[in-house]
Amino acid sequence: MQDLIYFHIISSLVYLAIIFLAKKGNLRISRFLYFITLNTGIITTASYIGQEGGVEFMLMYALALPFLTFSFKREKHYIFSLSLFSILFWILLYVTDFNLITDFKIDQNIASRTIYPISIVATLCLVTFQLIYFSYQNAQHFSNIHYNKDEALEASTAKSKFLSTMSHEIRTPLNAIIGLSHILGDNKPKQDQIENIEALNYSGKILLNLLNNVLDFSKMQSTKIELDEIPTDLSLATKQIKKIHENSCLKKGIEMNLFIDDDIPSVKLDIVRFNQVINNLVTNAIKFTDKGSVTLKIEKLHQTEKEITLKTEVTDTGIGIAKDKQKTIWEPFTQASSSTNRLYGGTGLGLPIVKNIINTMNSDVFIESDINKGSKFYFTLQLKIASTVALKKEKTKKSHNFDGKKLLIVEDNLINVMVGKQILEKVNFKVDVANDGLQAVHKIKENNYDIVLMDIQMPVMDGYTATKEIRKFNTNIPILALSASVFMEVKDKINECGMNGFIFKPFEPQDLLNQINETISKK
């Protein structure tokens, strides 16, 4: 019995040492020593007192303790190993008939009448304390989660509002640039002006692509991309891509090559998203290549009656990407090195967007690259084959003549009003203008219009409120939103307030006229 007393005196000194280590910041070592000392103390005491004393039940406290003192997320292996440690000692006590440490036992009457009740009460108190403390920790944890969730939602809402406003503020003048370039191109310009007009239109589209990259990245964080698959002639689409990028290659003195198999049929594909992928990859290839060539290659791997598998490659002879950087380039706002942004510019969003779009198309994009030898980005797509009838229907440019139909433009930007009027009057619309939502409400009360083009963000009264007011006295007139925002919450609000559809700014004139024609036809 004297040995047991000496053992507990030594254990007390060890506990003091553990406290000292913990205060010094050696938490992991101190926790391990504590568990070993606690378990050793319980089994040693249980061996001296015997089964009648019930001291072994305190191993229940030791068994549960790791769940309170270690992180379940980061230190799961410690929790399970230390809990198993306690279970193993408990089993060994029963297997050795409580002679694990010593076969000496104190008086069994004392053990059963005095020590057993103390052991049971102490175990119950300790386990109850654990349960209460564990419940408190859980409540605090879930409270933090709820608080963090609210903060995240507020931050997300603020971000969406900011991006929606910025989208509107940038897209509105951009709509004027692209619209005016179309109008200038349609007004029989002189031969020496055509190149300048094309450059203006191309610059607008490049700026739009940059804006779309930022907005697409924001959308991809919160929602899944929706694909709009239409019949597509890939040969024609890729030739247009080559034409867009040839000037950039000529300026740098590099070649732009295009290889596409001749026997690829028309396919069902979201050509806008596909072009976004190819443009991002080709733009990067040109940016990082100072000599040699950039090559876009599309080849057929397999074809059945209804489907075709295509492999697309973009290869360059540029600076290449180090092996250890080939995983990080897919992360947002990341480039291959710190000098890349300084020397070549860029947002670091192109490749993450490429990966997201290709993933949405049920594939993945891969890279092969060596420093100073160039890079190859490639992916395969399994696509449905489109009928030639559907392709012809898609490619047919519709001619419009609205024969004196009345249209109201509700827009506060005077340049956009000018652009819109010129596009619409060319197809024989009688165009009226309101510069805010309140003016629109009064005009619609006093006049009969065949359709309304309603801007969203305006002074005095916005487009949502104006539409709600109009729907109180006129439920039939078609109203199309002119929206510079691409966020789902804006689309939802457009539908909720009673509009019939929306057109994104900046728009292609042909897309605008097609949408107007379709909406009027449903009237």
TrEMBL record:
UniProt catalytic activity: ATP + protein L-histidine = ADP + protein N-phospho-L-histidine
EC number(s) per entry: 2.7.13.3
Pfam families assigned: HATPase_c, HisKA, Response_reg
Modified residues (4-aspartylphosphate): 455
Any one GO MF annotation of this record: phosphorelay sensor kinase activity
InterPro entries given in the database record: CheY-like_superfamily, HATPase_C_sf, HATPase_dom, His_kinase_dom, HisK_dim/P_dom, HisK_dim/P_sf, Sig_transdc_His_kin-like_C, Sig_transdc_resp-reg_receiver
Stretches that traverse the bilayer: 6-22, 29-49, 79-95, 115-136
All copies of domain Response regulatory, residue ranges: 406-520
Keywords assigned by UniProt, alphabetized: Kinase, Membrane, Phosphoprotein, Transferase, Transmembrane, Transmembrane helix, Two-component regulatory system
CDD domains: HATPase_EvgS-ArcB-TorS-like, HisKA, REC_hyHK_CKI1_RcsC-like
All copies of domain Histidine kinase, residue ranges: 165-385
SUPFAM superfamilies cross-referenced by the UniProt entry: ATPase domain of HSP90 chaperone/DNA topoisomerase II/histidine kinase, CheY-like, Homodimeric domain of signal transducing histidine kinase
Matches recorded under PANTHER family: HYBRID SIGNAL TRANSDUCTION HISTIDINE KINASE J
Protein name: histidine kinase
Lineage: Bacteria, Pseudomonadati, Bacteroidota, Flavobacteriia, Flavobacteriales
